[in-house]
Amino acid sequence: MDSRKMIGFGFLRKCGAGVMHLFVVTMCLGLSMCNIYGAHYAVLSNAPTWLKIMILPLYYYLVVNYFAAYMQAVFSDPGRPPKNPEDSLTTRCQKCNHIKPERTHHCSVCNQCCMKYDHHCPWVANCVGLKNYGYFIKFLVTGLIASSLSLLIEILALFSSKFCTHCTTTTRTLSAILCLTFSACSVMCCAMMFFSHVPYLKSNQTTVESYDNDFDKRQAKKNGLNYEYPYDRGLKKNLEEVFGPKVILSWLVPFWRNVLQVDGLGYVNCKNNKL
Ligand SMILES: [Zn+2]
Ligand SMILES: [Zn+2]
């Protein structure tokens, strides 16, 4: 018997990924709870009624939309290839032996293939691919808006000495430092991740594909040619491929289920169409 199998490297690897996921997901939820604490208990609970009526419904709508998108990104099928496809696809993954349609990649953390694979995200403890990329982007954007609002509320309260007025001076100082740090961290993390995905969203690329596309683009430039991304169908259709045809509703309604028009077995290849 293979000695690697005997001592259970596969099991240890799974445990390692499990511990990493648990740590990062707990951190993500912890940061979110600190933001809610900072905005609600430390500031808004002491605010005048008119301000509470104006801000609280908007703030909690954002929070619910954020948690809904997060749960959908974590628990959705990211787009595993079907076991018995109708089309007789012959290409198979050498690592898991599943069928491998175009734009499919094998995730070494999950040890499974994922269609339109973008990356494996420890923040959502899941692959990010064809079916949950929209939820992942919505999680980043709602997280960015909610944590920015938390930060703004906390800064305004701090400058007007309304921060945690029911606390002792020590608790107030500690709460202010922690809340502002956590909110600023959340804003930075969400902003960095979201803005790195904007060019991919616009041009219908995945993170994995962008490496090859960037290389091909440089090569084409050297040869005086104009490189076109193969799957770029224009902004509207690119967004519909990620969020489904009802893009606005998918953003506004918490737990909205994106119904995609692509099944992941084939894509419109704009480059081929133009030839
Ligand atoms: Zn595979
Ligand atoms: Zn994965």
TrEMBL record:
The keyword Transit peptide does not apply. It catalyses: L-cysteinyl-[protein] + hexadecanoyl-CoA = S-hexadecanoyl-L-cysteinyl-[protein] + CoA. Its EC number is 2.3.1.225. PROSITE patterns: DHHC. GO terms for cellular component: membrane. It is found in: Membrane. The keyword Ribonucleoprotein does not apply. It comes from the Eukaryota. Keywords: Acyltransferase, Membrane, Transferase, Transmembrane, Transmembrane helix. Pfam families: DHHC (PF01529). It is a multi-pass membrane protein. The chain crosses the membrane at residues 20-38, 58-75, 139-161, 173-195. Its main location: membrane. Residues 92-212 form the Palmitoyltransferase DHHC domain. One of its GO terms (molecular function) is protein-cysteine S-palmitoyltransferase activity. PANTHER family: PALMITOYLTRANSFERASE ZDHHC16. Belongs to the DHHC palmitoyltransferase family. The DHHC domain is required for palmitoyltransferase activity. This is Palmitoyltransferase. It comes from Hexamita inflata. The lineage of its organism: Eukaryota, Metamonada, Diplomonadida, Hexamitidae, Hexamitinae.
